Amino acid sequence: MKFRIDPLPQPGSYPGTAIVVDVIRATTTAALYLRAGAKALVLAPGVEVARSLRQDGEILAGEVGGLPPEGFDLGNSPREVEGVAGKTVVMATTNGTRAAHAALGARHILLGSLQNAQAVAEVAAGSGGEVAIVCAGKEGNIALDDLYTAGVIGRRLQALGFAPEGEMAHLALFWRRTLLCRCSLPARRPRPWWRWGLGRMWRSALGWMPMGWSPASWGCGGKVWCLGYRRRDAGHFAGGFAGEGPGGGGL
Q1: Quick one: DSSP state of residue 181?
Q2: Which backbone phi and psi does 187 adopt, to 5 degrees?
Q3: What does the alpha-carbon distance between residue 173 and residue 153 come to, in Å, rounded to a whole number?
Q4: Cα four-point dihedral sign 68, 73, 76, 79
Q5: What's this model's pTM, rounded to 2 decimal places?
Q6: Is 251 exposed, middle or buried (0-12, 13-18, 19+ CB in 10 A)?
Q7: Where do the DSSP E strands lie in the chain?
Q8: What is the mean predicted confidence (pLDDT) over 127-135?
Q9: What mean pLDDT is reported for the chain?
Q10: Is residue 238's pLDDT more than 50?
Q11: CA distance linking residue 49 with residue 121, whole number of Å
């Protein structure tokens, strides 16, 4: 089996398993919402779509330019996931949720980050077929932190018997070997982020806190849903969903 890494999403080119990566911050935060007990995530491609999808009792979360849009209940911080237990979270971000929509058409869509790198690699390896790691990027530009994370996940796929395909996969693996995670910070975000008090959020997104959960997603009715987790030690979906979503269709 092989895996490739796309530094930016390529819509319509993912027939197998796609692992979407926006480590700062959407895919990190999405995993933590579910870990905190969220019933489901609905990933919207934009803020206005998220507002239109939100139903009574649901939580609206996301960011524009890194900050919560007006009227949103939560931003996009992995440090702010309290209060989501038992609720559906409708989420829209500048890069990550759009990248998830770009992967629509894949047989499986997974959300990867540094915190669940091992789990997401194991789920992808068990799904059968080739794997594409899709970096969300930063507003159409390559993001080094996503490429680094892709290399971390790719290395775990290698350990599971997958071979890298293409120059970008080898570059990401090299990046993982030679650079510390914190080296990517200045390349991605300017200093105003520290002035906004988001430094601790960054450390949460880029921290090595092993998670045995991998959010699983699929497209239905123009939305991307994340319902439950695949737990690597139990080998099943948890969180109230048994592998079928709205409109039918397995994960």
Answers
A1: G
A2: -75, -15
A3: 9
A4: positive
A5: 0.76
A6: buried
A7: 2-6, 17-21, 40-44, 59-62, 88-92, 108-112, 131-135, 163-164, 213-220, 223-231, 236-238
A8: 94
A9: 78
A10: no
A11: 31
Tokens of 205: 């997104």
**Nearest alpha carbon to residue 17 among 3, 27, 30, 7:** 3
Q: Using one digit for the tens of pLDDT, what is the confidence trace for 138-190?
A: 999 999 999 999 999 999 999 999 999 999 999 999 988 876 444 444 444 44
Structure confidence at residue 121 as a pLDDT band (50, 70, 90): very high
The mean pLDDT value for 14-31 works out to: 94
- Whole-number Å distance between alpha carbons of 150 and 168: 10
**Tokens encoding 202:** 């960054």
Burial zone of 22 (CB within 10 Å; 0-12 exposed, 13-18 middle, 19+ buried): buried
The domains of the chain are located at 2-189+196-238
Q: Which CATH superfamily is domain 2-189+196-238 in?
A: ComB-like (3.90.1560.10)
CA atoms within 13 A on the CB side of 233: 3
